Amino acid sequence: MNPQRILRQKLEDLQRAGITQLPRELTDLVAELSQQTAAAPKSAENPAKAVAPAKPIVTTSQPASSVKTAAAEAPVQSSTPKPEKSPPATPVTRQFLSSSSGSMPGEFSGDTARPCSTLSLDERVASLAKAAEQVAACVRCQELAETRTQTVFGVGNPDADIMYIGEAPGADEDRQGEPFVGRAGQLLDKITEACKLTREEIYICNILRCRPPGNRNPTPDEAANCREYLDAQIEAVDPEYIVCWGSVAAHNLLGTKAAIGKMRGKFFDYKGIKVLCTYHPSYLLRSPGAKKDVWADMKIFRADMGVLLD
Ligand code: URA
Fold it and tell me: Which domain holds residue 243?
């Protein structure tokens, strides 16, 4: 197959998977093709033109003012930064350091080691694309399938170390087909930036892939129907960390009914992935006083990754 064809297929896979930020491998290929096609006759097909270059990682040191209103902030726990994720030739194990007391069921104890995924980037992208295709055709929840504008699969880096999980698409997400693009999403972006991260580094999805009418909470049946897709996304991306935004995400992922206020501030274990649960940005919009708690959680989360926040 010629390189242009391969590239076009990759781009289609990425689009189907809702991935707007291109992985390095692909941008290198794009650069290579651009050089080749620059020397080729004008009429030659050049899909590389459609591709934006990867955005640089922003390392803002100041948290956004709307986020950092901390008065009492939790102590920062520093630990060894995780090795960079790249598909290893043979399975290896990850050993995490614990930053929790282990006093709650499912809390991260530090003894969990799990095999590092051996999926290549191509395999991650392909498996996300396959799941996205299934989701687009899904009618498991009749009411949601009948009322949605479109499904909202997920977006972001297929090779991310961090996955965000929210609740369900709202009206804006339903319209645009992307998670967290409304007011809550804008606040989430500010929190992300304050954490010295960019949205493009993260993979973002929800418990549900369809908007519940009137923004009601997902029912247990709906969450169960959508679980297969969430699991597929977690398996494909294989993040080291998951942040559950709000109680719906925390309860459904971890199978608990504990109050979110009791779950926050520590790590839970989900199949060897460190899970941090905190308040949903929509809640912060209604209760700005809770921003300081989220900021304290973010400090714990990022410190565990070796990044100290102010
Ligand atoms: N709230 C969520 O939980 N997810 C979204 O995608 C948008 C708002």
Answer: 121-304
